[in-house]
Amino acid sequence: MFGLPLLDTLVIVVYFSIVLGVGAWASRRVKSEEGFFLAGRRFGKFVQTFASFGQGTSADNAVGVTTTTFHNGAAGIWSSLLYLFGTPVYWFTSSWLRRLRVLTLGDFFVERYGSRRMGALYALIGAVGMMAFIALGFNAMAKTVLAITPAEIPLDALVWGVCVIVMLYAAAGGLEAAFLTDTLQGIGIIALSILLIPFAWARINLLYGGQGMRGALRTIHARLPDSHFDIFGSPHAIDFTWYYIVALSVMALLTVVIQPNMLVTCGSARDEYAARYGFVVGSYLKRFCTVLWGVFGLAAIVLYAGYIDDSDLIWGYATRDLLGPLGLGLVGLMIACLMAALMSTADCLMLTCSSLLTHNLYRPLMAGRSPRHYVWAGRVFGAAVLLGSAWIALQFDTILQILRFIWEMNVALVPAFWLGMKWRRANRWGAWFSTVIGVVAFLVLPLLLPTVLPTLRTHPQLLQRTDPAPLVREYHATEADVRIREAEIEAWQTARDAGQSSGPRPEPLAVGQGFTRTYQLPRKAVFWTQDIRADDHGNLSGRGALSLELVLLDRLGFHLAQNPYALNETLRILIRTFSPLVVMLLVCLATPPDDPALLARFYAKMRTQVVADRSHDAEELAASLADPHRHEQQLLFPGSRWEFYRWNREDACGFLLSIGAVFAVLGFMQLLLTIGG
User: Fold this and answer.
1) Reported confidence tier of residue 243, pLDDT bands at 50, 70, 90
2) What is the 3-state secondary structure (H, E, C) of 223-242?
């Protein structure tokens, strides 16, 4: 099939048969909206762990980290690891999401601000963001499988084919089918993360000499400059400098909780502890896998630099090159694992979108229908979401373009969620103003203005490129540096022999000798998200969306063209993250507070811990609603407008262990990057 050997084909067929069978079995257990969208809230720690790991890990993660590491060295790992420093906070936010006891995160806006329209607006924004996530997975999976298979398969056919398979089992069986297959698929993702590394190391040892892991890593260090092993960025890493990583991490901490799938993942747990344990442990599983993807990316530079033009194809090319000759069915296993990574995310996100659209848009318009009617409406919306995601996947050129769009998708919703959770003075006026202004300023106008006024794309003032001063760094020469200098001397000699001006002759280097290197950073567009390109006639035009916040800074006299590209991106991220917060704070202080009864009901629920016994939990919640002051002893600042709660033993131990896990991930990464160096 598609030019693959029989054994590889058999592995793929068996895998798809299993997931479709799970979907058919789970479909018979769906009786209500809660059963379809949240699987009856009956999952424990084990399933929740792999559900969190599976829905947060798609085919694009391994492929994307490999491609960003290929271009940026070890700093490229942060394209996926940017959520690391915010992960300990999940120990608390997962508990909040479970205590909401709602069907979708759109219901939070309805209950906290008393506005169904705000819930509907969130449903639209959240659905678009989730469709972009699914599209990212489709794009990465399709490119990788195309690079793996010897036969010529149309990209469109591959994307639509996987779309149909996910639609069949997830739309039929709902979240139970999605999470049960996620448990199987999570194991496949871990296998995917490990599978290529030993074979890449073996190939490096075969080509350059050496034995075992240490020998391969020694060769990687010898053939790559030291800057490739700098975790927090280097002059080579134009996309991931230390300050850009910090800005992304702050934004990720604030925005990740607002993603609609977070409520689905945490809300399906049988109790509060299962929700927080499963979400945090599953997230850290992904962090460790991310490090492994980056380690493979460094090996891929040694093996394939200069041979592959499109770095998005490296994972697939390496699979065919390293695993294919063995004839053990490992290529089929890799394809199945990639499909597993994609589908474990796509099924959950599809159901998240369908629940939002059904519950917060369709149900208010078509009230009073049977539970079966809404389940079928959810299936139809889910199918439409997948089809739309497949179409979006075919509109982008690279994985990194989609990643940047996703990272910034939810910034407008940050104030309404975080202040609504913890500040009783937050009101619907502030939530509306901050959300609408953020959506218009950061999503609508950047795309709409260049469409309505196409001359903006060719305006000379908006065609500026960065032209930062060269960076000078001091190093101690490695074997790789010595070889690079020898190549520079040879190139100088060739140019001189040809009668071309080549400047002064570079000085030879010895291993361990100190030397300086000057970096001229690449010039990139200041105001356009997809750079500046020339047409067939040489006319320049900006591509992508227009960064209005940077245009404003330019008008205020800031010389952005003199900055490195990563610094301009950092400024843009900080403005997008914090300006909606400032807007909401000011509007809330200038307008009347919300109805006290509405606030009392919401915070009474948030102070009531979720227990596994459904009837007992309902009794506890009813008691809290009858007496909103019942749990006021939990408040850290009683009598104030802030809803911060005292930590118990579970809170403190879980948070401290989570912080320890951050250092464990960093230590694991540092260990793998220093062995052989």
Assistant:
1) confident
2) HCCHHHHCCCCCCCCCCCCH
Q: Rounded to 5, what percent of the chain is helix, strand, coil? A: 70, 5, 25
pLDDT at 471 over 70: no
Find where tokens 């459904």 sit: 614
Tokens representing residue 92 in the block:
């608390």
Question: Is 23 in contact with 170 (CB distance < 8 Å)?
Answer: yes
Backbone angles phi, psi at 642, to 5 degrees: -100, 135
pLDDT digits (tens, 9 = 90+) for 86-115: 899 999 999 999 999 888 888 999 999 999
| Residue pair 350/387 in contact by the 8 Å Cβ criterion | no
What's the rounded Cα separation, in Å, for the pair 2 and 98?
Answer: 45
Q: What is the dihedral of CA 47, 53, 55, 59, to 10 degrees?
A: -130
Q: How far apart are CA 447 and CA 95, in angstroms?
A: 37
Indicate the burial class of 589 (C-beta count within 10 angstroms; 0-12, 13-18, 19 or more).
exposed
H-type alpha helices, 528-564: 548-555
Whether the Cβ atoms of residue 256 and residue 339 lie closer than 8 Å to each other: no
Closest to 526 measured CA to CA, from 574, 443, 463, 454? 463
With tokens 């190391």, the residue in question is 201
CA-based max dimension of the chain: 91
Looking at residue 642, what is its pLDDT?
Answer: 93
Phi (first) and psi of residue 505, to 5 degrees:
-70, 130
Quote the pTM value. Answer: 0.79
pLDDT tens digits along 315-341 = 888 888 888 888 778 788 777 777 766
Buried b (16+ CB within 10 A) or exposed e, 381-400: bbbbbbebbbbbbeebebbb
